[in-house]
Protein backbone atom coordinates (compact mmCIF):
# COMPACT_ATOMS: atom_id res chain seq x y z
CA UNK A 1 0.00 0.00 0.00
CA UNK A 2 1.29 3.43 -0.91
CA UNK A 3 2.85 5.59 1.73
CA UNK A 4 3.65 9.26 1.48
CA UNK A 5 6.71 10.85 2.99
CA UNK A 6 6.75 13.99 5.07
CA UNK A 7 9.21 16.75 4.27
CA UNK A 8 10.33 16.82 7.89
CA UNK A 9 9.15 16.40 11.46
CA UNK A 10 5.71 17.95 11.85
CA UNK A 11 5.59 20.40 14.75
CA UNK A 12 3.01 19.93 17.51
CA UNK A 13 -0.24 21.71 16.64
CA UNK A 14 -4.03 21.70 16.76
CA UNK A 15 -6.01 21.32 13.54
CA UNK A 16 -9.28 23.21 13.95
CA UNK A 17 -11.97 22.16 11.47
CA UNK A 18 -14.85 24.61 11.11
CA UNK A 19 -17.91 22.86 9.70
CA UNK A 20 -16.70 19.64 11.27
CA UNK A 21 -20.17 18.08 11.40
CA UNK A 22 -20.45 18.32 7.62
CA UNK A 23 -19.87 15.90 4.78
CA UNK A 24 -16.35 17.03 3.83
CA UNK A 25 -14.95 16.34 7.30
CA UNK A 26 -16.60 12.93 7.52
CA UNK A 27 -15.78 11.72 4.00
CA UNK A 28 -12.37 13.29 3.35
CA UNK A 29 -10.64 15.13 6.18
CA UNK A 30 -10.93 12.79 9.16
CA UNK A 31 -10.33 9.61 7.11
CA UNK A 32 -7.21 11.23 5.60
CA UNK A 33 -6.00 12.24 9.06
CA UNK A 34 -6.50 8.66 10.20
CA UNK A 35 -4.43 7.45 7.23
CA UNK A 36 -1.64 9.86 8.21
CA UNK A 37 -1.90 8.68 11.81
CA UNK A 38 -1.63 5.04 10.71
CA UNK A 39 1.56 5.88 8.80
CA UNK A 40 2.92 7.65 11.92
CA UNK A 41 3.22 10.92 10.01
CA UNK A 42 1.36 13.00 12.59
CA UNK A 43 3.21 14.43 15.58
CA UNK A 44 2.72 12.72 18.92
CA UNK A 45 1.61 16.06 20.34
CA UNK A 46 -1.37 16.77 18.15
CA UNK A 47 -5.07 17.54 18.46
CA UNK A 48 -8.11 17.85 16.21
CA UNK A 49 -10.81 20.29 17.24
CA UNK A 50 -14.09 20.06 15.40
CA UNK A 51 -16.22 23.19 15.47
CA UNK A 52 -19.75 23.51 14.19
CA UNK A 53 -23.29 24.67 14.80
CA UNK A 54 -24.58 21.13 15.32
CA UNK A 55 -25.03 20.41 19.02
CA UNK A 56 -22.80 17.43 19.75
CA UNK A 57 -20.72 16.21 22.66
CA UNK A 58 -17.12 15.22 22.04
CA UNK A 59 -18.09 11.59 22.71
CA UNK A 60 -20.91 11.56 20.14
CA UNK A 61 -18.68 13.37 17.63
CA UNK A 62 -16.00 10.72 18.06
CA UNK A 63 -18.57 7.98 17.54
CA UNK A 64 -19.63 9.59 14.26
CA UNK A 65 -16.06 9.82 13.08
CA UNK A 66 -15.24 6.23 14.01
CA UNK A 67 -17.91 5.19 11.54
CA UNK A 68 -16.60 7.64 8.93
CA UNK A 69 -13.04 6.32 9.24
CA UNK A 70 -14.20 2.73 8.89
CA UNK A 71 -16.24 3.60 5.81
CA UNK A 72 -14.02 6.08 3.95
CA UNK A 73 -10.37 5.68 4.97
CA UNK A 74 -7.89 4.11 2.55
CA UNK A 75 -6.47 2.07 5.44
CA UNK A 76 -9.37 0.27 7.07
CA UNK A 77 -8.92 0.16 10.88
CA UNK A 78 -8.17 -3.37 12.08
CA UNK A 79 -6.92 -2.63 15.59
CA UNK A 80 -9.68 -1.17 17.83
CA UNK A 81 -7.08 0.09 20.32
CA UNK A 82 -5.28 1.98 17.58
CA UNK A 83 -8.53 3.59 16.39
CA UNK A 84 -9.38 4.55 19.98
CA UNK A 85 -5.95 6.17 20.34
CA UNK A 86 -6.67 8.28 17.25
CA UNK A 87 -10.18 9.23 18.36
CA UNK A 88 -8.84 10.42 21.73
CA UNK A 89 -7.09 13.22 19.88
CA UNK A 90 -10.43 14.58 18.63
CA UNK A 91 -12.51 17.20 20.47
CA UNK A 92 -15.65 19.13 19.59
CA UNK A 93 -16.96 22.62 20.34
CA UNK A 94 -20.46 23.65 19.32
CA UNK A 95 -21.08 27.34 18.52
CA UNK A 96 -22.20 29.85 15.90
CA UNK A 97 -19.08 31.45 14.33
CA UNK A 98 -21.06 34.55 13.34
CA UNK A 99 -21.78 35.31 17.03
CA UNK A 100 -18.93 37.42 18.47
CA UNK A 101 -19.64 36.41 22.07
CA UNK A 102 -19.75 32.73 21.14
CA UNK A 103 -16.51 33.13 19.18
CA UNK A 104 -14.83 34.67 22.24
CA UNK A 105 -15.80 31.58 24.23
CA UNK A 106 -14.46 29.42 21.42
CA UNK A 107 -11.14 31.31 21.40
CA UNK A 108 -10.80 30.76 25.15
CA UNK A 109 -11.46 27.03 24.68
CA UNK A 110 -8.86 26.81 21.89
CA UNK A 111 -6.19 28.37 24.08
CA UNK A 112 -7.09 26.14 27.01
CA UNK A 113 -6.90 23.05 24.79
CA UNK A 114 -3.54 24.23 23.44
CA UNK A 115 -2.15 24.50 26.96
CA UNK A 116 -3.46 21.10 28.00
CA UNK A 117 -2.11 19.38 24.87
CA UNK A 118 1.19 21.31 24.88
CA UNK A 119 0.87 22.18 21.18
CA UNK A 120 2.93 25.36 21.56
CA UNK A 121 0.34 27.78 20.17
CA UNK A 122 0.47 26.28 16.67
CA UNK A 123 -2.89 26.22 14.88
CA UNK A 124 -4.25 25.29 11.46
CA UNK A 125 -7.76 26.59 10.85
CA UNK A 126 -9.56 24.59 8.16
CA UNK A 127 -12.72 26.19 6.77
CA UNK A 128 -14.89 23.26 5.67
CA UNK A 129 -17.81 25.67 5.63
CA UNK A 130 -20.05 27.44 3.13
CA UNK A 131 -18.20 30.24 1.26
CA UNK A 132 -20.35 32.80 3.07
CA UNK A 133 -18.11 32.26 6.13
CA UNK A 134 -14.77 32.70 4.32
CA UNK A 135 -14.56 36.31 5.44
CA UNK A 136 -16.37 36.03 8.78
CA UNK A 137 -14.20 33.34 10.35
CA UNK A 138 -10.77 34.83 9.49
CA UNK A 139 -12.02 38.21 10.72
CA UNK A 140 -13.15 36.69 14.02
CA UNK A 141 -9.87 34.79 14.36
CA UNK A 142 -8.01 38.08 13.96
CA UNK A 143 -10.27 39.86 16.46
CA UNK A 144 -9.29 37.25 19.04
CA UNK A 145 -5.58 37.32 18.06
CA UNK A 146 -5.56 33.77 16.75
CA UNK A 147 -3.95 34.88 13.49
CA UNK A 148 -0.72 36.27 14.93
CA UNK A 149 2.50 34.30 14.59
CA UNK A 150 4.95 34.88 17.43
CA UNK A 151 7.50 32.10 17.14
CA UNK A 152 4.67 29.69 16.29
CA UNK A 153 2.48 29.18 13.22
CA UNK A 154 -1.11 30.09 12.41
CA UNK A 155 -2.49 28.92 9.04
CA UNK A 156 -5.89 29.13 7.41
CA UNK A 157 -7.14 26.66 4.78
CA UNK A 158 -10.11 27.42 2.53
CA UNK A 159 -11.89 25.24 -0.01
CA UNK A 160 -13.13 26.31 -3.43
CA UNK A 161 -14.97 28.28 -4.66
CA UNK A 162 -12.47 31.13 -4.33
CA UNK A 163 -15.02 33.75 -5.28
CA UNK A 164 -17.93 33.77 -7.70
CA UNK A 165 -16.20 35.95 -10.31
CA UNK A 166 -13.12 38.17 -10.55
CA UNK A 167 -14.59 40.93 -8.40
CA UNK A 168 -15.61 38.63 -5.55
CA UNK A 169 -12.30 36.74 -5.76
CA UNK A 170 -10.38 40.01 -5.43
CA UNK A 171 -12.60 41.01 -2.51
CA UNK A 172 -12.03 37.64 -0.79
CA UNK A 173 -8.27 37.84 -1.31
CA UNK A 174 -8.19 41.38 0.09
CA UNK A 175 -10.21 40.28 3.11
CA UNK A 176 -7.87 37.34 3.78
CA UNK A 177 -4.77 39.53 3.36
CA UNK A 178 -6.13 41.93 5.96
CA UNK A 179 -5.74 39.21 8.60
CA UNK A 180 -3.36 36.55 7.26
CA UNK A 181 -0.20 36.82 5.20
CA UNK A 182 -0.20 35.02 1.85
CA UNK A 183 2.24 32.44 3.24
CA UNK A 184 -0.30 31.70 5.99
CA UNK A 185 -3.15 31.20 3.50
CA UNK A 186 -3.74 27.80 1.90
CA UNK A 187 -6.34 27.65 -0.91
CA UNK A 188 -6.89 23.95 -1.33
CA UNK A 189 -7.71 22.21 -4.62
CA UNK A 190 -7.77 18.45 -4.19
CA UNK A 191 -6.74 17.97 -7.85
CA UNK A 192 -3.27 19.27 -6.96
CA UNK A 193 -3.01 16.59 -4.29
CA UNK A 194 -3.58 13.77 -6.77
CA UNK A 195 -0.50 11.69 -7.46
CA UNK A 196 -1.30 11.59 -11.17
CA UNK A 197 -1.49 15.38 -11.46
CA UNK A 198 1.90 15.75 -9.80
CA UNK A 199 3.20 13.02 -12.10
CA UNK A 200 2.52 15.26 -15.11
CA UNK A 201 5.43 17.42 -13.97
CA UNK A 202 7.71 14.40 -13.63
CA UNK A 203 6.61 12.95 -16.97
CA UNK A 204 7.41 16.23 -18.68
CA UNK A 205 10.57 17.37 -16.99
CA UNK A 206 12.29 14.09 -16.03
CA UNK A 207 12.04 12.40 -19.42
CA UNK A 208 13.99 13.74 -22.41
CA UNK A 209 11.64 11.70 -24.59
CA UNK A 210 8.85 14.25 -24.08
CA UNK A 211 10.12 17.73 -23.29
CA UNK A 212 11.91 18.42 -26.63
CA UNK A 213 8.65 17.73 -28.49
CA UNK A 214 6.35 19.45 -25.97
CA UNK A 215 5.56 22.47 -28.16
CA UNK A 216 3.61 23.85 -31.12
CA UNK A 217 6.00 22.27 -33.63
CA UNK A 218 5.10 18.72 -32.62
CA UNK A 219 1.77 18.90 -30.77
CA UNK A 220 -1.43 19.26 -32.79
CA UNK A 221 -3.94 19.84 -29.99
CA UNK A 222 -4.61 19.01 -26.35
CA UNK A 223 -7.89 17.93 -24.78
CA UNK A 224 -8.76 17.88 -21.10
CA UNK A 225 -11.90 16.07 -19.99
CA UNK A 226 -13.49 15.74 -16.57
CA UNK A 227 -16.74 13.83 -16.84
CA UNK A 228 -19.11 12.54 -14.20
CA UNK A 229 -21.88 9.98 -14.53
CA UNK A 230 -23.61 11.29 -11.41
CA UNK A 231 -26.02 14.20 -11.37
CA UNK A 232 -26.04 16.99 -8.80
CA UNK A 233 -27.07 14.55 -6.04
CA UNK A 234 -27.81 16.50 -2.82
CA UNK A 235 -25.94 19.62 -4.03
CA UNK A 236 -28.74 20.97 -6.23
CA UNK A 237 -29.04 24.26 -4.36
CA UNK A 238 -25.30 24.95 -4.44
CA UNK A 239 -24.76 23.73 -7.98
CA UNK A 240 -27.60 25.82 -9.36
CA UNK A 241 -25.74 28.94 -8.22
CA UNK A 242 -22.47 27.70 -9.70
CA UNK A 243 -22.62 25.60 -12.86
CA UNK A 244 -20.02 23.55 -14.70
CA UNK A 245 -17.86 26.48 -15.80
CA UNK A 246 -17.39 27.81 -12.26
CA UNK A 247 -17.45 24.45 -10.50
CA UNK A 248 -14.92 22.63 -12.68
CA UNK A 249 -13.28 24.62 -15.48
CA UNK A 250 -12.32 27.79 -13.58
CA UNK A 251 -10.30 25.79 -11.07
CA UNK A 252 -9.67 22.10 -11.80
CA UNK A 253 -9.39 22.10 -15.59
CA UNK A 254 -7.50 25.38 -15.87
CA UNK A 255 -5.12 24.02 -13.25
CA UNK A 256 -4.47 20.94 -15.41
CA UNK A 257 -3.98 23.22 -18.41
CA UNK A 258 -1.47 25.26 -16.45
CA UNK A 259 0.57 22.20 -15.48
CA UNK A 260 0.48 20.79 -19.01
CA UNK A 261 1.52 24.11 -20.60
CA UNK A 262 3.91 25.65 -18.04
CA UNK A 263 7.61 26.20 -18.57
CA UNK A 264 10.09 24.28 -16.45
CA UNK A 265 10.71 26.09 -13.15
CA UNK A 266 14.32 26.79 -12.22
CA UNK A 267 13.78 24.67 -9.11
CA UNK A 268 10.78 22.79 -7.74
CA UNK A 269 9.83 25.29 -5.07
CA UNK A 270 6.54 26.80 -3.98
CA UNK A 271 7.12 30.21 -5.54
CA UNK A 272 8.81 29.06 -8.76
CA UNK A 273 6.24 26.38 -9.58
CA UNK A 274 3.29 28.66 -8.94
CA UNK A 275 4.96 31.51 -10.87
CA UNK A 276 5.01 29.35 -14.00
CA UNK A 277 1.34 28.39 -13.68
CA UNK A 278 0.35 32.04 -13.33
CA UNK A 279 2.35 32.87 -16.46
CA UNK A 280 0.26 30.35 -18.41
CA UNK A 281 -2.99 31.84 -17.13
CA UNK A 282 -1.79 35.33 -18.03
CA UNK A 283 -1.10 34.14 -21.60
CA UNK A 284 -4.58 32.72 -22.18
CA UNK A 285 -6.07 34.49 -25.19
CA UNK A 286 -8.98 36.66 -23.96
CA UNK A 287 -12.42 35.86 -25.36
CA UNK A 288 -14.71 38.50 -26.80
CA UNK A 289 -18.40 37.90 -27.45
CA UNK A 290 -17.73 36.51 -30.93
CA UNK A 291 -15.13 34.12 -29.51
CA UNK A 292 -17.58 32.93 -26.88
CA UNK A 293 -20.17 32.24 -29.57
CA UNK A 294 -17.69 30.28 -31.69
CA UNK A 295 -15.49 28.60 -29.10
CA UNK A 296 -17.73 27.67 -26.16
CA UNK A 297 -20.65 25.31 -25.63
CA UNK A 298 -22.98 25.15 -22.64
CA UNK A 299 -25.76 22.67 -22.07
CA UNK A 300 -28.04 21.12 -19.48
CA UNK A 301 -28.91 17.44 -19.15
CA UNK A 302 -32.45 16.22 -19.63
CA UNK A 303 -33.93 12.86 -18.64
CA UNK A 304 -32.14 9.84 -20.04
CA UNK A 305 -30.51 6.57 -19.08
CA UNK A 306 -27.19 5.85 -17.40
CA UNK A 307 -26.15 2.24 -17.97
CA UNK A 308 -29.77 1.34 -18.64
CA UNK A 309 -31.15 3.07 -15.54
CA UNK A 310 -33.57 5.95 -16.12
CA UNK A 311 -32.52 9.21 -14.44
CA UNK A 312 -34.31 12.58 -14.22
CA UNK A 313 -33.31 15.75 -16.01
CA UNK A 314 -31.51 18.58 -14.23
CA UNK A 315 -34.66 20.68 -13.83
CA UNK A 316 -36.31 17.80 -11.97
CA UNK A 317 -33.47 17.48 -9.45
CA UNK A 318 -34.06 18.42 -5.79
CA UNK A 319 -33.06 21.98 -4.94
CA UNK A 320 -32.88 23.12 -8.57
CA UNK A 321 -35.00 26.02 -9.84
CA UNK A 322 -37.34 24.50 -12.48
CA UNK A 323 -36.61 27.55 -14.68
CA UNK A 324 -32.86 27.36 -14.15
CA UNK A 325 -30.46 28.25 -16.96
CA UNK A 326 -27.44 26.80 -15.13
CA UNK A 327 -25.20 24.70 -17.35
CA UNK A 328 -24.31 21.14 -16.33
CA UNK A 329 -22.01 20.74 -19.34
CA UNK A 330 -19.38 23.16 -20.56
CA UNK A 331 -16.80 22.90 -23.32
CA UNK A 332 -14.45 25.48 -24.71
CA UNK A 333 -11.59 25.94 -27.14
CA UNK A 334 -8.81 28.20 -25.93
CA UNK A 335 -5.32 29.30 -26.91
CA UNK A 336 -2.15 30.18 -25.03
CA UNK A 337 -0.40 33.08 -26.72
CA UNK A 338 3.26 32.38 -26.05
CA UNK A 339 6.21 31.02 -28.03
CA UNK A 340 5.67 27.41 -26.96
CA UNK A 341 1.93 27.13 -27.63
CA UNK A 342 0.89 29.81 -30.14
CA UNK A 343 -2.14 28.61 -32.17
CA UNK A 344 -2.26 25.14 -30.57
CA UNK A 345 -5.90 24.64 -29.51
CA UNK A 346 -6.66 23.39 -26.01
CA UNK A 347 -10.10 21.81 -25.66
CA UNK A 348 -11.63 21.68 -22.18
CA UNK A 349 -14.78 19.69 -21.44
CA UNK A 350 -16.71 18.80 -18.31
CA UNK A 351 -20.21 17.64 -17.56
CA UNK A 352 -22.58 15.75 -15.32
CA UNK A 353 -24.65 12.71 -16.32
CA UNK A 354 -22.14 11.71 -18.98
CA UNK A 355 -21.57 7.99 -19.70
CA UNK A 356 -18.65 7.51 -17.33
CA UNK A 357 -16.58 9.04 -14.54
CA UNK A 358 -13.17 9.97 -15.88
CA UNK A 359 -10.62 12.78 -15.79
CA UNK A 360 -7.84 12.69 -18.33
CA UNK A 361 -5.52 14.77 -20.48
CA UNK A 362 -4.78 13.72 -24.07
CA UNK A 363 -1.84 15.29 -25.87
CA UNK A 364 -2.20 14.70 -29.62
CA UNK A 365 0.93 14.82 -31.72
CA UNK A 366 0.99 16.04 -35.29
CA UNK A 367 0.93 13.46 -38.07
CA UNK A 368 3.88 13.09 -40.40
CA UNK A 369 3.73 15.11 -43.63
CA UNK A 370 4.02 11.96 -45.75
CA UNK A 371 2.58 8.54 -44.87
CA UNK A 372 5.13 5.96 -46.01
CA UNK A 373 3.20 2.98 -44.73
CA UNK A 374 -0.39 1.84 -45.11
CA UNK A 375 -2.22 2.01 -41.79
CA UNK A 376 -4.72 -0.62 -40.71
CA UNK A 377 -7.43 1.10 -38.70
CA UNK A 378 -8.85 -0.52 -35.58
CA UNK A 379 -12.14 0.37 -33.89
CA UNK A 380 -11.71 3.63 -31.96
CA UNK A 381 -8.18 4.05 -33.36
CA UNK A 382 -6.99 7.61 -33.75
CA UNK A 383 -4.77 9.32 -36.27
CA UNK A 384 -1.29 10.18 -35.04
CA UNK A 385 0.48 9.50 -31.78
CA UNK A 386 -1.09 10.54 -28.50
CA UNK A 387 -0.18 10.59 -24.83
CA UNK A 388 -3.11 9.85 -22.51
CA UNK A 389 -2.64 10.92 -18.89
CA UNK A 390 -5.40 9.38 -16.79
CA UNK A 391 -6.01 11.38 -13.60
CA UNK A 392 -8.85 9.18 -12.34
CA UNK A 393 -9.94 6.40 -12.12
CA UNK A 394 -7.49 3.61 -13.06
CA UNK A 395 -4.69 6.14 -12.84
CA UNK A 396 -1.86 5.83 -15.32
CA UNK A 397 -0.32 6.84 -18.63
CA UNK A 398 -0.87 5.45 -22.11
CA UNK A 399 1.27 6.21 -25.16
CA UNK A 400 -0.44 5.52 -28.49
CA UNK A 401 1.95 4.72 -31.33
CA UNK A 402 2.04 2.79 -34.62
CA UNK A 403 3.94 -0.49 -35.10
CA UNK A 404 4.35 -2.87 -37.99
CA UNK A 405 1.72 -5.57 -38.33
CA UNK A 406 3.35 -9.00 -38.20
CA UNK A 407 3.71 -10.64 -41.58
CA UNK A 408 4.68 -9.57 -45.05
CA UNK A 409 4.63 -5.95 -46.11
CA UNK A 410 4.83 -2.73 -44.13
CA UNK A 411 1.30 -2.18 -42.89
CA UNK A 412 1.08 -0.48 -39.51
CA UNK A 413 -1.34 -0.95 -36.64
CA UNK A 414 -2.07 1.37 -33.71
CA UNK A 415 -0.90 -0.01 -30.36
CA UNK A 416 -0.68 1.32 -26.81
CA UNK A 417 2.16 1.31 -24.32
CA UNK A 418 0.61 1.48 -20.86
CA UNK A 419 1.59 2.15 -17.28
CA UNK A 420 -0.95 1.89 -14.48
CA UNK A 421 -0.38 2.71 -10.83
CA UNK A 422 -2.39 -0.37 -9.89
CA UNK A 423 0.45 -2.48 -11.32
CA UNK A 424 2.84 -1.29 -8.62
CA UNK A 425 3.55 -3.43 -5.57
CA UNK A 426 1.05 -1.49 -3.49
CA UNK A 427 -2.56 -1.30 -4.53
CA UNK A 428 -3.66 2.09 -3.19
CA UNK A 429 -2.45 5.58 -3.96
CA UNK A 430 -2.37 8.05 -1.08
CA UNK A 431 -5.47 10.22 -1.15
CA UNK A 432 -5.20 13.82 -2.32
CA UNK A 433 -6.18 15.14 1.11
CA UNK A 434 -3.47 13.07 2.81
CA UNK A 435 -0.78 14.81 0.79
CA UNK A 436 -2.29 18.28 1.04
CA UNK A 437 -2.96 18.12 4.78
CA UNK A 438 0.57 16.91 5.46
CA UNK A 439 2.02 19.66 3.25
CA UNK A 440 0.06 22.28 5.17
CA UNK A 441 1.30 20.86 8.47
CA UNK A 442 4.85 21.15 7.14
CA UNK A 443 4.28 24.72 5.95
CA UNK A 444 4.66 23.73 2.28
CA UNK A 445 2.13 25.57 0.08
CA UNK A 446 3.55 24.40 -3.28
CA UNK A 447 0.39 22.45 -4.12
CA UNK A 448 -2.01 25.20 -3.03
CA UNK A 449 -3.43 28.04 -5.11
CA UNK A 450 -1.91 31.50 -4.81
CA UNK A 451 -4.01 34.67 -4.86
CA UNK A 452 -2.74 35.92 -8.24
CA UNK A 453 -3.41 32.54 -9.89
CA UNK A 454 -7.01 32.59 -8.68
CA UNK A 455 -7.55 36.10 -10.00
CA UNK A 456 -5.86 35.38 -13.34
CA UNK A 457 -8.10 32.34 -13.89
CA UNK A 458 -11.21 34.41 -13.14
CA UNK A 459 -9.96 37.13 -15.49
CA UNK A 460 -10.15 34.58 -18.32
CA UNK A 461 -13.49 33.08 -17.25
CA UNK A 462 -15.42 36.30 -16.53
CA UNK A 463 -16.03 37.32 -20.19
CA UNK A 464 -17.45 33.86 -20.91
CA UNK A 465 -19.84 34.13 -17.96
CA UNK A 466 -20.91 37.61 -19.07
CA UNK A 467 -21.57 36.49 -22.65
CA UNK A 468 -23.53 33.47 -21.45
CA UNK A 469 -25.58 35.64 -19.14
CA UNK A 470 -26.57 37.85 -22.08
CA UNK A 471 -27.40 34.72 -24.13
CA UNK A 472 -24.61 35.21 -26.66
CA UNK A 473 -24.23 31.44 -26.58
CA UNK A 474 -27.42 29.33 -26.43
CA UNK A 475 -28.15 26.94 -23.57
CA UNK A 476 -28.46 23.55 -25.27
CA UNK A 477 -29.66 20.24 -23.88
CA UNK A 478 -28.31 16.70 -23.98
CA UNK A 479 -29.78 13.39 -22.83
CA UNK A 480 -28.35 11.95 -19.63
CA UNK A 481 -26.00 9.15 -20.60
CA UNK A 482 -24.69 10.88 -23.72
CA UNK A 483 -21.40 12.74 -24.26
CA UNK A 484 -23.12 16.10 -24.42
CA UNK A 485 -24.69 18.11 -27.24
CA UNK A 486 -23.65 17.77 -30.89
CA UNK A 487 -22.30 21.32 -30.72
CA UNK A 488 -19.48 20.03 -28.49
CA UNK A 489 -18.44 17.60 -31.23
CA UNK A 490 -18.64 20.41 -33.79
CA UNK A 491 -16.37 22.51 -31.55
CA UNK A 492 -13.47 20.10 -31.94
CA UNK A 493 -14.11 18.88 -35.49
CA UNK A 494 -11.37 19.53 -37.97
CA UNK A 495 -8.67 17.63 -39.77
CA UNK A 496 -9.04 14.26 -37.97
CA UNK A 497 -9.87 16.04 -34.67
CA UNK A 498 -12.46 14.51 -32.41
CA UNK A 499 -13.04 13.99 -28.70
CA UNK A 500 -11.54 10.95 -27.05
CA UNK A 501 -14.43 8.97 -25.55
CA UNK A 502 -12.96 6.63 -22.92
CA UNK A 503 -16.01 4.42 -22.39
CA UNK A 504 -15.16 1.23 -24.24
CA UNK A 505 -14.16 -0.58 -21.03
CA UNK A 506 -16.71 0.47 -18.46
CA UNK A 507 -16.41 -1.00 -15.00
CA UNK A 508 -19.41 -2.15 -13.03
CA UNK A 509 -18.61 0.07 -10.06
CA UNK A 510 -19.29 3.79 -10.02
CA UNK A 511 -19.58 3.95 -13.82
CA UNK A 512 -15.81 4.25 -14.11
CA UNK A 513 -13.69 3.07 -17.01
CA UNK A 514 -10.30 1.46 -17.43
CA UNK A 515 -7.39 3.27 -19.03
Automatic annotation (TrEMBL):
Record-annotated Glucose-6-phosphate dehydrogenase C-terminal domain positions: 201-500
Catalytic activity of the protein: D-glucose 6-phosphate + NADP(+) = 6-phospho-D-glucono-1,5-lactone + NADPH + H(+)
EC number, UniProt record: 1.1.1.49
Keyword terms: Carbohydrate metabolism, Glucose metabolism, NADP, Oxidoreductase
Domain Glucose-6-phosphate dehydrogenase NAD-binding, chain residue ranges per copy: 16-199
PROSITE patterns named in the record: G6P_DEHYDROGENASE
Pathway noted in the entry: Carbohydrate degradation; pentose phosphate pathway; D-ribulose 5-phosphate from D-glucose 6-phosphate (oxidative stage): step 1/3
Positions annotated to bind substrate: 190, 194, 228, 247, 352
GO cellular component term, pick one: cytosol
Residues of the active site: 252
Single GO BP term: pentose-phosphate shunt, oxidative branch
Gene Ontology molecular function terms on file: glucose-6-phosphate dehydrogenase activity; NADP binding
Annotated positions binding NADP(+): 53, 160
PANTHER family to which the protein is assigned, alphabetical: GLUCOSE-6-PHOSPHATE 1-DEHYDROGENASE, GLUCOSE-6-PHOSPHATE 1-DEHYDROGENASE G6PD
Task performed by this protein: Catalyzes the oxidation of glucose 6-phosphate to 6-phosphogluconolactone.
Family: Belongs to the glucose-6-phosphate dehydrogenase family.
Full protein name: Glucose-6-phosphate 1-dehydrogenase
Gene: zwf
